[in-house]
Give the backbone structure.
Amino acid sequence: MADEEDKRNMSRLREGDDLALNDLMARWKEPVVTFCFRYTGNLTDAKEIAQESFVKVYQARHRYRPQEGVAFSTWLFRIATNLCRMRHRWKKRHPEVLAADREDSDRPESSVHKQSETPVETLDRKNLAADLDAAIQRLAPDQRAAFILQELQGRSQADIATIQNCSAKAVERRLARAREHLRESLRHKWDA
């Protein structure tokens, strides 16, 4: 099981084998960057937050307790979520930095090109993705995190509750509100 491997790597890290962090990063860097990008809407911020998340894992390696029933990935995403929230709050207090960041916020282009798509379908798909990303960015931070963790990362509501330090019922409400806000945001543009 993958979680057992993560726990072994954390044990190695706790015992002084710093190379175990490389194994954890190899497995979790891409999912964490993806989550952070979806949360922040900025690739540069996402990469920095992901890197900082692994620094925090290293710094807190002696505090991680796998026997408490929390998967390593849940613990890691809690760290990343908290760092995303802190970055969001910082940017709200420093709006002058936002203009410079806009140039870095472009979505990385996928190298996958669907052969069967017409140019109009490709443009529609890209426009819908951009509109969805913009709508996700307008969600309240807790709703945004819950939505990204479930819909884009495949996390269970129980994991999200642990990551967000709230009840499963609160996660359920956040997800319902997020979906409703997204429907309302996209309805005017994408209703057929």
